[in-house]
Write a structure and sequence with these properties.
A hairpin with a 5-residue loop joins strand 6 and strand 7. The chain is about 50% helix and about 15% strand. It folds into 2 domains: about 100 residues, Helix Hairpins (Orthogonal Bundle); about 160 residues, 2-Layer Sandwich (Heat Shock Protein 90), CATH 3.30.565. It is built from 7 helices and 7 strands, in the order αααβααββαββαββ.
Length: about 260
């Protein structure tokens, strides 16, 4: 008796999987090369522009006059924006290529550290920030710090004129089946999650733009009114994806915005 098993299809699937893995490795290598270029080659010319601009402003103020000084100021501002953009792009690329071993992270202490970093902005805007008890999660501490740094700084930045910001950070346990429909798929296999809410009373936005704000370089407001690179919320989305969770946003024009972070328990 002879048994014949056709393994052609399995062999073809393995070849396709190996090809996909090779393409992924090449993609990661390209991203790492970009990160190197962004952190070294692109930033050095910007540092020279800023340094030479300082020399012109300080050493030739009388010769260039008021108009010349204003042009130098604009040049310095553009170089500074470009430097910030490069740093944000570098951060975003690293989230895709570098993964640390996940460890227990107490979010309550982490968020308090973020608020310490934002102390000057909080004081200048006379903001009130209330933080409920937050859980211990398993993840990358640096990435989670970036997540809440961006969410809280946005809540403070996009405030209404002459209205002190009020920011509320809340938390509750939630099961997978209770997560609202339409939320992007969760990569984690568990059934229990934390829903962490960051709510503010700022300028808000129309809900039709809820998905757009998480895309790289997408802005709903001009940079003259609210400075930034348009990458902060894309970084937030990437961090939450890396942790097997989901991130949603709802807005009310003139009446604030609410961001909900879903992280596995």
């Amino acid at each position: 008796m002879v048994t014949i098993v056709d393994v052609t299809e399995n062999h073809r699937n393995r070849e396709q999987l190996e090809q996909a893995n090779q393409e992924l490795r090449r993609s990661n290598e390209n991203l790492q090369q970009f990160a190197y270029v962004a952190s070294h080659d692109l930033q050095e010319p910007l540092r020279k522009i800023q340094a030479f601009g300082d020399l012109l402003r300080d050493g030739y103020a009388q010769q260039i006059g008021t108009d010349g000084a204003d042009l130098i100021r604009r040049m310095q501002s553009a170089a500074e924006r470009m430097q910030t953009l490069i740093r944000d792009l570098l951060t975003y690329s690293r989230l895709s290529t570098q993964r640390e071993v996940f460890q227990p992270v107490p979010l309550e202490g982490l968020v308090q550290g973020v608020l310490g970093d934002l102390e000057v902005m909080i004081r200048e805007k006379n903001a009130q920030v209330r933080v409920d008890s937050l859980p211990l999660v398993v993840g990358d501490r640096l990435q989670l710090h970036q997540l809440f740094q961006n969410l809280l700084s946005n809540a403070l930045k996009f405030s209404q004129p002459e209205v002190p910001p009020h920011v509320q950070v809340a938390n509750r346990p939630i099961s997978r089946r209770d997560i609202p429909g339409g939320v992007l798929p969760l990569h984690a296999s568990g059934e229990k999650f934390w829903e962490i809410t960051v709510e503010d009373n700022g300028i808000g936005f129309q809900d039709q733009y809820a998905d757009r704000i998480f895309q790289v370089f997408q802005r709903l407001h001009g940079k003259d009114r609210f400075p930034g690179t348009g990458i902060g919320l894309a970084i937030c989305k990437k961090v939450v994806d890396n942790h097997g969770g989901a991130l949603t946003a709802t807005g009310r024009p003139g009446n604030g915005a609410t961001f909900r972070v879903y992280l596995p328990q």
